[in-house]
Each structure stands twice: as C-alpha cells, then as structure tokens.
Task: structure prediction
Amino acid sequence: MRKNKVKISVSITDFDFFDLSKQLIQIEKAEIDMLHLDIMDGNYVPNISIGPHVVKSIRRKSKLFFDVHLMVKKPETMLVPFIDSGADLITVHAETSPHLHRTLSEIKKAGLKAGIALNPSTPLSYIENVLDLSDLILLMTVNPGFGGQKFIPSMLNKIRKLKSMIDNHAQAQDKYKAIEIQVDGGINEETAPLVLGAGASVLVMGSAVSNSGDIHGYISKIKKNFT
Ligand code: DX5
Ligand code: ZN
Result:
C-alpha cells in the first residue's frame, strides 16, 4: 500500500492574535503544508475562537493551504461562509452532522477537500460508509476545545485501526485513494514519531510551535526529523 507524504498543519489557536501577522510570516517562511484554523462556537466545545471574517482576512495575506476544523453545532449551516472565506479543506465533526453524506457532498461540490473529525470517544464505524467522500480523517488525540492539552496515548491504537480500515477500503475499491490521517492535539517532538509510526500522515501542531519561542526554527527541526 502506498504511503502518504508526512504533512504539517500549524494551528494558530494559541498564537498571540495581536501579533498574528508577524507569526504568520514566520510560518509561511517555514513552508508548512497547511494552516490549521480551529473554529469553536462555545456550544459544541467550551471555547470560542474565530469566524469566517477572520479567516477571510488571513486569506488576503496568505497563500497557504487553509485547513478549517469546524468544532460547531450544525456545521451544515456554516459551510457557505467558510467556503467563501477561502478554505481549501473543511473538516466537520461526525458527531455534529446527522446527514454527514450530504454535508461532505456539499463541501466537495464547492470544489474543496472534505474531512471528517472524530472525538477520542467516537468509534471509527461513524465514517465507514462515507470514506468515498472523504479526503482526510481527523482523529482528535485530545478532547476538542483547547490547545496545550496532553496527548491521549490510547489513540495510537485507533490510528492503527483507521489506517487498516483505509487500506482495506482502497483494496476493495481496487484503486488507491490518498485519504489522509490527521492527528490533532498534544502533538510535539515526543508524540510525533509515535503517531507517524501508527499510520498518521498529517500532524497538527499548535502549542508546541507557539511556545517554542522560535517558530521558524521549531518547524524546520520537525520537518527535518519527521517529514
Ligand atoms: C483542539 C484543537 C487543536 C489545537 C491543537 O480542540 O482542535 O487544533 O489547537 O493544539 P495543541 O497542538 O496545543 O494540542
Ligand atoms: Zn483542530
């Protein structure tokens, strides 16, 4: 089975928004694969972050691939504003979308990549009937809502199971489709090799980057060691 190239998606959630443009310049210089934009509604998760207006403002200044992670109730009502704000990938939580097939179809119809996120407690069976519509599966490796939390080690087995589910799916279809396995929460120099060994292909990194004191240097080190 072919392997996906390891990608890095930097989450700006814990960055200092007063200085965001300076930090973005450093992130852009480090040539990451994606910019991870966490959208929290204070309802599905106990925190509030940014909305489409902020995403649109960043879009005007950035050419990065925008990886929008919707942690909101009723994500289907928020698709158009985020499509219009310049997202390249929209990921919705399976737990929030009873008509997941329709939601993913709408994202794909708009020409974007579509992702499904699963909380640590959500079983993989939630996604098995919609793998054909998915470009990426986001496994939460912490409970969503905040940056800076500790990686949940039992998620390693879930990553392995997902990897084999995706490989079996590709074999059954007799075609290789590069469905990415993204991991989000508590990813740093210690946990990156573990999740990559289990089968992850996209590392979301937030506080590890923002707390490093040297955004460009830290990302370069991660890229050199793990990609
Ligand atoms: C958590 C968010 C994450 C978060 C990651 O709900 O979805 O993207 O910003 O931050 P770290 O890397 O600090 O866990
Ligand atoms: Zn996220």
Observations:
- The beta strands are 7-11, 34-40, 66-71, 89-93, 113-118, 136-140, 180-184, 202-205.
- The longest strand covers residues 34-40.
- The mean pLDDT is 96.
